[in-house]
């Protein structure tokens, strides 16, 4: 179930079925596209500055490793910047989906690895950018996982690491599906200080530590209540919430309100770090 959720959050969805409820005057808002809009306001996918995330620039001279790449949303941005791409995931189907997604891109090269990352089949100090988003909450040994990411980074390499924020995880308790907090899904809830400690103990310097995603935290909560499937999340709760958030972001103080709410309940916490 959680794999389907991650795919929904990171892969463009097919056109949604026509709503069976609601006024014909209310336009459908694609939750994925709205999620991209929300993420951009939080510093993701900055084409102008060439940053995958605020403070994480990617250029054609970089070699980017994405561990737990899913269907390749993050590395697609990096490929468009002309970087060399290495993707690693335990799921062969996701690796193939990413390979197809990057076909014909501006990437210098694309290498695809099906691996559990213990260890990574990559030489020491061989990459300049390491990305691993929403992965560490799944692994059996977080410290060993981070040590392996640090091993393959060059001196001065930048790291973009994210994990579910505890505020959103606690919000889901009692409402999420039974397997949400069970292996192979979220086997731990990671506090902010714990996340920072793991990263610094692995030998990295934390450059920034932020959070975002109030929109998705509430969307997930309403999803559990709606009782629909990820393949076609068609329910008034989800449609109405998506429309509300869309209207909010377009309002004069929408971005400021979003920023405040992201500090209250965030889907994700994001660390940018540097290898000395």
TrEMBL record:
Pfam families: Methyltransf_11
Gene Ontology MF term list: S-adenosylmethionine-dependent methyltransferase activity
Database matches in InterPro entries: Methyltransf_11 (IPR013216), SAM-dependent_MTases_sf (IPR029063)
Domain (Methyltransferase type) ranges: 65-159
Top-level taxon: Bacteria
GO biological process: methylation
Alphabetical keyword list: Methyltransferase, Transferase, Ubiquinone
Name of this protein: Ubiquinone/menaquinone biosynthesis C-methylase UbiE
